[in-house]
Amino acid sequence: MIYEFNGYIPVVHESAFVHPQATVTGNVVIGRNVYVGPGAAIRGDWGQIIIEDNCNVQENCTIHMFPGTTVLLKEMAHIGHGAIIHGATIGRNVMVGMNAVVMDRVEIGDESIVGALCFVRADEKIPPRSVVVGNPHKIVKEVSDEMIHWKTEGTQIYMQLPADCHATLKPCEPLREVPTDRKVQETGYQTWTERKSG
């Protein structure tokens, strides 16, 4: 659902994929290979939202701001399921975990990782490569090369997802039983815990 608001029409690059059950309103610019999942609300009614190339905004995320503010997601920002970004700047190759909340005028430095359920208070400036957890937030360590490599791999999967959705996603009627020849999905991707234990 793409809506014009007060004369502003969202700009969405043709390679991006915005799910039909997401809502994009007003002064929003979405770059190349961006994935926006169902239930996401990206509301540029009172200010501008810029989502640079290769970002993903997953299911049920909210991106909004106070009046006169620009929200910026820099290249390869990875916004996990249910997260809220309100009036903040998210640096390049940052991961914001599921159901995290990043408040007004926050700047998350490049290649940082914000943990699931984390609450980042307004006006905070998080240095690059920080691991941020808790409510209220706390910087607990620096992001290692291994961690940022793992994060980047995960984001690259999402960078492929818009093309896959354009090529194969379509409404359908459900099957009534599992076909005997149904293939198992294989990716070779490991969660952080699997990688550390392997």
TrEMBL record:
Answer yes or no on keyword Transferase: yes
| Gene3D superfamilies reported in the protein's UniProt record | Hexapeptide repeat proteins
What UniProt keywords apply to this chain's record, in alphabetical order?
A: Transferase
Known Pfam families for this protein? Hexapep
May I ask which residue range the UniProt record assigns to the signal sequence? none
Q: Which GO terms describe its molecular function?
A: transferase activity
Top-rank taxon: Bacteria
Give the matching PANTHER family: DYNACTIN SUBUNIT P25 (PTHR13061), GAMMA CARBONIC ANHYDRASE-LIKE 1, MITOCHONDRIAL-RELATED (PTHR13061:SF29)
> What is this protein identified as?
Transferase hexapeptide repeat family protein
Species, as recorded: Rufibacter hautae
At the highest ranks, the source species' classification is:
Bacteria, Pseudomonadati, Bacteroidota, Cytophagia, Cytophagales
